Amino acid sequence: MSVHVLDIVNSPCDLNSICDTLIDLAFRAGEIINGALPDTGNTGSKKNSADLVTEYDRAVEEMISRELKDKYPDFRFHGEESYDPACPLTDAPTFVIDPIDGTVNFVHGFPHACVSLGFAINRIPTIGVVFNPFTNTLYSAIRGKGAFLNRDTRLPLKGSNVEALNGLSNSLVCVEWGSERSGKNWETKMRTFEKLGQDKEEGGAMVRSLRSIGSAALNLCAVASGTLDLYWEGGCWAWDVCAGWVILEEAGGIIVGGNPGEWEAKVDGRKYLAIRAASSRVSQEELAEEFWGIVQGRLEY
Ligand code: IPD
Ligand code: CA
């Protein structure tokens, strides 16, 4: 079946009802996550000891995938725990799902993890639902219809009073360590982190501070809210960013690539730079260029 993005975007009932379905599923996933007893010493690992998976990641994805396939048999499903490298994301309408984003936090009981439910058409993130069951915080957005916190507060939180962006040295920046701890990407990240923090007198950007809180989806929602100014990421996957992407753009933020000059970011491109809403697009682009000037090398995934 071929479905064009405009057929769905021009059909408000469908997008609204898909979003409502995803919100219901997010709450059901939250019950599983809140009822879980993860154990820091008894988790499975995928690539290494920093790349974790638990029985709860699998149970949440199974529940979501079963329900979505039953209700929307024509749409594809692209989920972290059932991902097959032979089946990459396509242009077809697809649910792009991370059952638990922030699994390291989840197993340690650090209350910063979420279920991330995205829907993409032509690989354009179109619906996003992100729910942190530890804090009962729900973010949601439909392309063209705005982004919301707990369904009633429009994002960004400061609304039309959103402040101007005023350079990296006045910014709170989010980065993540990821699970790959050697090689060229690791070098690029470490040297960039150092430059971001370093005193201007020594050639650094001297950002206000760096945050690394372990969930790409929640990081994007924080940029959408305006509580973080920028988020730079390399190495995560479409399921980590699809939902948060719509929420960010609908909140007036922008997302570009993680390497210098990458103005067109792809949802499955694995390297991203997200910038919060500001009074002018020019100041967002200037901040992207200033950030790219600090990147030490290139991210290659
Ligand atoms: C991880 C988180 C983390 C990001 C990693 C992701 P997971 O997702 O989003 O913030 O830096 O690249 O893999 O493994 O907790 O679903
Ligand atoms: Ca995950």
Automatic annotation (TrEMBL):
<dbReference type="InterPro" id="IPR033942">
    <property type="entry name" value="IMPase"/>
</dbReference>
<comment type="pathway">
    <text>Polyol metabolism; myo-inositol biosynthesis; myo-inositol from D-glucose 6-phosphate: step 2/2.</text>
</comment>
<dbReference type="InterPro" id="IPR020583">
    <property type="entry name" value="Inositol_monoP_metal-BS"/>
</dbReference>
<keyword id="KW-0460">Magnesium</keyword>
<dbReference type="InterPro" id="IPR000760">
    <property type="entry name" value="Inositol_monophosphatase-like"/>
</dbReference>
<dbReference type="InterPro" id="IPR020550">
    <property type="entry name" value="Inositol_monophosphatase_CS"/>
</dbReference>
<comment type="similarity">
    <text>Belongs to the inositol monophosphatase superfamily.</text>
</comment>
<keyword id="KW-0479">Metal-binding</keyword>
<keyword id="KW-0378">Hydrolase</keyword>
<dbReference type="Pfam" id="PF00459">
    <property type="entry name" value="Inositol_P"/>
</dbReference>
<protein>
    <recommendedName>
        <fullName>Inositol-1-monophosphatase</fullName>
        <ecNumber>3.1.3.25</ecNumber>
    </recommendedName>
</protein>
